[in-house]
Each structure stands twice: as C-alpha cells, then as structure tokens.
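Before relying on records like the one below, remember that each one covers exactly one chain. Contacts with other chains, cofactors or solvent are not represented anywhere in the record.
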Amino acid sequence: MEHDLSPATLAELRRPRPYPAVSVLTPTHRREPDNTQDPVRLRNVVTEAKKQLETDPAVSRERRTDVVRQLDQALTEVDLAHAEDGLVIFAAPGEHQVWSLARSVPERVVLSDTFLTRNLVSAQAAERPFWVLSASADRVTLWSGGADRVAEDRIGGFPLTRRLVENFDAERQERIGDLPSTFRDERTRQFLREADTAMSTVLREHPRPLYLTGEPVALSALDEVGSVTKNAVHVPHGGLAHGTPEAVWHAIRPVQEVEARKAAAAVARELETARGRREFAAGVDEVWQNARQGRVRLLAIEENYRVTVRDDAGDHLVPAESGDLDAREDIVDEIVEQCLETGAKVRFVPDGALREAHGIAGVLRY
C-alpha cells in the first residue's frame, strides 16, 4: 500500500484519464474491536463501485471489465492487519493503486475522469511528514517520519556508505572517544559534503522539516562543510546511521514533540496578529468562502476537526447530516487542498486550540 505523496506522484494522480477513473474511499481502524468491521465495509464499498460501473451508460463493456479487474487486484493488495485510519483505492483502465492514510475518510465512490486526491493531500498535511538524516563517519542514512513512525527511505542515493581505510573502525572510534580526529579527516569531510548535497536534492523534490542525528562532533562537521544541514534541528545522538527505525523514533519523538508545540504556539501568535489587523477568518463557512477566492495565507485546523455541511445555493455552507443526499462530509479536506493549491501554509494544531474559531481559522492575504 502507498504512503508517500510526493509532488510528482500527486501530479500523476491528478492527470486526466479515460473515463471511468474510480476512487473508492472507506474509513479503517487500527485496533480491535473497531477494526472487525473493516473487511465487510471494504467489500461493500467495492461492490457499490462495481454496481455504479454496471449501471453507468457511459462505461463500455470492455472498460467495465478492465476496471472491475483492477478493483479486484487492488483488493488483494489491501493489508487491513496494518490499517491506519483511512483507505483509498484508485482504479482506471490498465491501472490501480491502494493508499493507506493516517486520517479518516468518508465512505464514498466517485466515478470521474480524474482520481479524487483531496483526502490524500489533507492526510499528508495532517501527518506533518519530516526527514531524519543520521550521520556517521562511514554511513549516512535517511529516514522518513510521520505522525507515529519512521522508516528508512532509499531515495536520493541514500544510504550513503564509504569503504573505510584498513584498520579504520568508525564504530570502535565512537566507543573509545577518538571521534574528533575522525571528523577532521578530509576524506570523512568530503563524504559528509556528498551527503549534504544529496540531501539538498531530496529537499528540493520533497520539502519537509529536517532533523539531523549523530555524535556532537559529527553534527559540528556537517555544519562546517554543509549547507542545508545547517538549517536542520540537531539531535546529538550517535549510532542511528546503523540503527533501527524504533531506535530513531525513540530519539526523535521527544524533539519532534517540542518542535510541534513551538509550531502550534507560532500559529496562535500569527492568528492573534491577524485578528487585530482584521485579516482573520473563523468557522468553516467563512474560511471556505475565502479559500475559494484564494485569500487564505495560513490555514489552521484542529487535528480531529470534522464537520458535515451542504452548500446553500452556492453562497454559504450550512450544517447537514452524514448521509444526506447533498452532504459534503470531507469539506475540511476540500478546504485544505484548495488552500495548498493557492500557496497557503496549512498547519494542524491540537484539539481545543481553536475553540473560539470553531475548529478552523485562516489568516488572510488581504
């Protein structure tokens, strides 16, 4: 199942396709007893997709057979034992994809000439993905982090390794405390320059916050020879270049939580300043109207804020019940995608932080 939504992947998903491009969404659950219902719900929503293909006069028999086969193949790739909070299946003639999301989605089926991407975009923004670069004298490892995990990532040529000279044992030198001479060695410093250059390429293609781990002398050496690593959050913890995802997460989590609190406080200050300047929008209807006009510069949302609405004659959003014919259950994800497309920053903050704004607020450009 897919997890990493890069700009290139998003552009490919949004590419127009021969009709029908089918998007199947269903909420999933991580733990018992809620997850016992997931297999049944998944089968039911895929069955609904097949029914819509069967009754749609615009779908030829050949394409219907092809897309049904793609849906069946996608089902075999779903791993509900490792489910998160939402599942999305995309199927079109000749292709299919399965996405696992760390954010809930409404149950729905959409037939169009493009895939429905707003829930993927919102889930990625909510997960606050980040990079961890773990450096040692003989290996630099890249880790991809999210809401509750890290995993090694092998893009950009990572991990970088080098063959050490005879009798050179980087891990032994770490143990006996001979690191300063190790990181003054020009070959080691050139190795770290190469790692910095590779990381710069990764950040251009996949911009995220960067955390840098290593012995203090390794971090100092990277500061001296590097460029993008200078702006990283330093975590003085050695051994992680050869470590496990669990060890990296254990070292990064406390620092990442501190950074998240700092970011939430910065958002609160920016919202307060905007309120004083009358560049402030609050509530789903007001934020939605400004988002459609491209006026939102910063969008702030409580992490678990959800609301179901309907469009009142195109002018305002009004409350609705889930399951109503014209209900829009993923309006929050729709707003997130709209704001990101118009260049706004999107920040998720702890529940209760936007109580006076009813869970969602924006700083306006004008």
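The longest strand covers residues 21-27.
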